[in-house]
Amino acid sequence: MARGFRKKIQQKNTENSGFGSNLSGRFINKDGLPNVNRKGVNIFNRYSWYHTMLDLSTFNFLSYLVVAYILVNLFFALIYYLIGVEHLTGIDKSNPVNEFIDVFFFSSQTFTTVGYGRIAPVGFMASLVATFEAFLGLLTFAIATGLFYGRFSRPRAYLKFSDVAVVAPFKETSALMFRLAPYKNNALTDADVVITTAIEVMENSSPKINFYQLKTQLSKINTLALNWTIVHEIDEESPFYGFSEDDFKNTGIEIIVHIRAFDEVFSNTVVQRTSYVTKEIVYGAKFIPMYYPDKDNLSTVLNLDKISDYQKAELPVFMEEEEE
Amino acid sequence: MARGFRKKIQQKNTENSGFGSNLSGRFINKDGLPNVNRKGVNIFNRYSWYHTMLDLSTFNFLSYLVVAYILVNLFFALIYYLIGVEHLTGIDKSNPVNEFIDVFFFSSQTFTTVGYGRIAPVGFMASLVATFEAFLGLLTFAIATGLFYGRFSRPRAYLKFSDVAVVAPFKETSALMFRLAPYKNNALTDADVVITTAIEVMENSSPKINFYQLKTQLSKINTLALNWTIVHEIDEESPFYGFSEDDFKNTGIEIIVHIRAFDEVFSNTVVQRTSYVTKEIVYGAKFIPMYYPDKDNLSTVLNLDKISDYQKAELPVFMEEEEE
Amino acid sequence: MARGFRKKIQQKNTENSGFGSNLSGRFINKDGLPNVNRKGVNIFNRYSWYHTMLDLSTFNFLSYLVVAYILVNLFFALIYYLIGVEHLTGIDKSNPVNEFIDVFFFSSQTFTTVGYGRIAPVGFMASLVATFEAFLGLLTFAIATGLFYGRFSRPRAYLKFSDVAVVAPFKETSALMFRLAPYKNNALTDADVVITTAIEVMENSSPKINFYQLKTQLSKINTLALNWTIVHEIDEESPFYGFSEDDFKNTGIEIIVHIRAFDEVFSNTVVQRTSYVTKEIVYGAKFIPMYYPDKDNLSTVLNLDKISDYQKAELPVFMEEEEE
Amino acid sequence: MARGFRKKIQQKNTENSGFGSNLSGRFINKDGLPNVNRKGVNIFNRYSWYHTMLDLSTFNFLSYLVVAYILVNLFFALIYYLIGVEHLTGIDKSNPVNEFIDVFFFSSQTFTTVGYGRIAPVGFMASLVATFEAFLGLLTFAIATGLFYGRFSRPRAYLKFSDVAVVAPFKETSALMFRLAPYKNNALTDADVVITTAIEVMENSSPKINFYQLKTQLSKINTLALNWTIVHEIDEESPFYGFSEDDFKNTGIEIIVHIRAFDEVFSNTVVQRTSYVTKEIVYGAKFIPMYYPDKDNLSTVLNLDKISDYQKAELPVFMEEEEE
What we know:
potassium transport (chains A, B, C, D); alpha+beta; K_chnl_inward-rec_Kir_cyto (chains A, B, C, D); K_chnl_inward-rec_Kir (chains A, B, C, D); Inward rectifier potassium channel Irk (chains A, B, C, D); disordered N terminus; homotetramer; 7 helices; Helix Hairpins; Immunoglobulin-like; 2 domains; five-stranded antiparallel β-sheet; five-stranded mixed β-sheet
């Protein structure tokens, strides 16, 4: 009976997780961001537009740029049209639609500063607007330059995690394991891991969430070139000590993983977070090796597709009775 | 009687605050910058123009750019005008004003490199000036690009602090508390806080300022996703031990707060400072919770408008007599 | 007899090298990158194109840019040609080749936004394509700006290592030594070194690789201005204790070097790695000094060409028998 | 008698200064760079051109840009001239000088992409060269953008040091002191200082340089807002213990100072180095205070012109005889 059991956890819960102890879903989303909604600040202050632009996918980012480019040109085309096409040379005045098309192209030639001159401003107002449109264009591309650089120079760990954590046989007992590997041509060194687990417990017959730091066999590694299997032995000091398969299935568990490493190309510290919740923990399984020598025996091959591959593995039976 | 009392502080004052002990207003302004004026270096050396440009508000920054753009074009327009409009093609020579307007627009078309060519230089001098104006234009936009990038990639903590610190009931005694929360979509981890307090004391009957490091219940936190209430228990080791409500109101106190955290998007350490002075400390109050589960119980909502909300709270009476 | 001997290593092997213990060539290539091939992720996800662009040589990088520029213009020239040269003014229509040449140049004038206007779009389709080509051109140069900056602002240690490590006489015993020096006008301080060695041993009559941390005489240095000779004394705690010349020649050894320093110009930590394998270790040799006072005795001259220069040196005979 | 005296230094000399112990002038120049010349690597590899461009003064940097701009345009003008001015429209063909002037301006209009079009390429060769000149122009400005950004975003401490160090009365003995202050509107926190001194000593009657770490009263400071006087007490553990005025004047001494702090605007660690040699040490002097409250007593004024101001101060006589 799970609820009763969980009261037995002996490890002192940690106080500095930064999360509250009330129950409202996952703490850390799979992508590593906290599962928190902010309100009460107006929308402009609640978002860092730069953080937002950096988090967009490449496709979305480029789409926004193209849409913004079209909208800006439509806006300026309208202004030139309202000023009057007679303030521009070279406009096709055969009908209003052609006029608008030509001022639109004039606008784009001004905004990008290509300025062929086939269409050129002659009147004061059109010249003045063009003066500012070209200026705005250059500032916009100055900002775009910064955004592009910010996006691709943003230090990232590029770590792939196994989809699940397993409870595998380990020495004479068992251990909670998951693994990760760098999947890009970046060079990571001095990696370390911090694992915090949130476990739902009954305290004075009301549910509450406690946080525990999980010890690992190896919490630092010199070079993160191959995969790294992180092993938390379920010994007497573990909050999972004595957990049966049912306990793992029925208890609200979240394992919050925080990896930090040094990227030698960026010369910067990079971090990545993820979490495993109850349904992502497989009891009685072990991972299948994912690297092997190449056929000439001159180098090591790391097969990243195998990162989540595991096989069934018998766990030693925990002698619960003995303690009583 | 406050002055007398303050002499009783037992904690050793810290020497490495970096501030002098003479009395000249607040040490740290509310925005976190030291309250110091520099003189004696000439104005060009006293300011880092880059630090200055980064500290400008967005509105001021853009305004400066626009004004500079207009001034540069007026300057070059004047030069082209003095060289003579006959060195340019396509100028409207109907009257001097139109001439000047046209050279102004020619200047802007050169500076932004839009170069329609309707107005173009033909003479040697006008061509030479245009050659350098276009060059200057590109360098200017190169600098602007750097400034934009510097401005929005500048690592910042985006922390909102409560307007006041409170002296609230805590365990059997009381504690000085204030709170903070990140208000943007940035992801902060590994936050730590250092609190130094400056207290005005009488030493050999002349006023002097002593500095004390304040201990906190929790000086590090793993994830700064929700709000963080920083708690300094007023126990026997606190410099505020034995302070009555009157003492808090009549003593010159400044609580200097220094937060440091790791921003996972920038992969950089970010810091933020603030300070609370005597009039920003509320005696006998406690903060009202500011986060709660959302209605589906799947996520946590953090209401940032409530960050400074507190309610009255009775404090235990300090038994001053007992010590004697 | 080497194989037997190597079993005697007393030092505990380190577990956190991050490398596996199977045998598949060098662990770290001479240039510092791990000798690992990744597979199983598709090619777009397996490479960080930004890391790749930063690792290209200057010549390759510029070549790629030029080739890309030509290809983009050929692509757009084809589109303009298919749209029809009658949508452009100023085209030399004497024959199809000249037409294509002219649309190619029109494309380049649009992509770079130079836009002379001698050739200019008049039709809707040509104008529309030109609108996007100019936009694409500016974005491309925005990206190029970021790549250039990323390339030359990338923090690097610029350390030159001696080609070989030597086993030299040291105090009464011997020591493994290699040396390094900064070869550019960068200013490095607070350097430290970590040396891990991989040694092939026989365990239960099957070959296996063990990792050992090598102690050095001096693992930190304040200023890295001259050369730095790193000295690992082969004393009883060294895994090489008792190695004869033959042992050094016949054992699979890899000495993995990891240097970390602070670059004062970039204000950033820089790292560099290299490794020495069996054939790069010279037994019975010592380095020749590589710096000396200049002729006015006012400054020190560091001759970087001498970094790998060594001379023969007699080593004390190791009394293997004594231990038995 | 100085030489003899210096042999008495009891402190163990530090080995990890990174400098050799031969005598060849100052180790660290006043501007903080090591006094070392490198040779033996070819000139292209010996300099990091990026470090060099960042170290240029603003005037030199801009001058180089202008000169490069002129040279590039002369180069391309020559090419266009050799191709033949008949491949360009709008050239003033009255005489060869005017032709060259016009191709020069055409070149500049292409390089900056201003492209008025008054002069435009018509022939194949001229168009082809213009195609690459415009491309080169954009890449050049991409690089210039990076250099500008690199230059002004380069983290620097902006510390002003006193011109001299003084040996001043301190407690019952004396102390070596110098001071520093930030002179710009940057915000430095968490500053720390490391002082190494090089002292010329006689060892076995040949001169040699020993290095000693100097202890300071306060080696860390929280906020570097005012000036910071660094105090090395000359007590029994100091290498200067027992030095007379003559010893200070006749011994080869170099005090190497290394300051490290955190800049809150750049969110980066900044460092600055300097050194004081024998002739920059004033015996029997103390610094004059350089900050005071402003007239409204609301803020502190720091007068940076006073940083090197000192006055004579009597030192306690050292009782050398007592030791014998």
